[in-house]
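Below is how a single chain appears once it has passed through the pipeline. First comes the sequence as given, then the structure the pipeline wrote out for it. We keep one example in the README because the format questions we get most often are answered faster by looking than by reading.
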Amino acid sequence: MMPRHLVVGLIVVLVAVLVLGVYVGRMHYRAAQLPPAASDARPIEPPGAGPTEPITLYVADDAAGTIRPYSVTIPLSAGRQQRANLLVAALLAFYRESTSAHAIPVASELRAVYLIDSDTAVIDLNAAFADGHRSGVLIEELSALSLVESLSENVEGIRRVKILIDGKTRDTLAGHADLSEFYDSGSAKEAAVQMGSD
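Resulting structure:
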């Protein structure tokens, strides 16, 4: 036979397990009776726009075959990363307008701008931008140079820019403009100046 203190200890443990089981069961039952939490179906608001700032976008004009500076005032962030994203998104929105002299596909969107280090940026655009882009040496170069020049002139220190499509390197934009290499902002600026002076 077991000693008396072990029997008492075993009975106390069994009673405690039984009471705990009843308590957990009641809590589970009560939780099931509560009405489901109402979900908030409202769209998520973007973060505060912040102060506006005048900037210069370098805008392509297909008919003239040029890139010209265009001053706009848009909300910008002080942080380089957020500033780069807002800037390229503003340029794409400008091109998507029906009155744009350099139309891009309406579904074109910026996925993100990544600042790799102090002087290198990567612009990642969605597939709609490239898949629906009009083909032609000049038209494609105008798009690429406009993106590179607008970014490098408005985000301090950017000297090299790479353009990706859906996170991947593409050989060309729509058959002509070379996207396989980084664009040097100095060379892009020279090309933009030459185009603007024609």
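The chain has one domain: 52-197.

See the next section for the split statistics.
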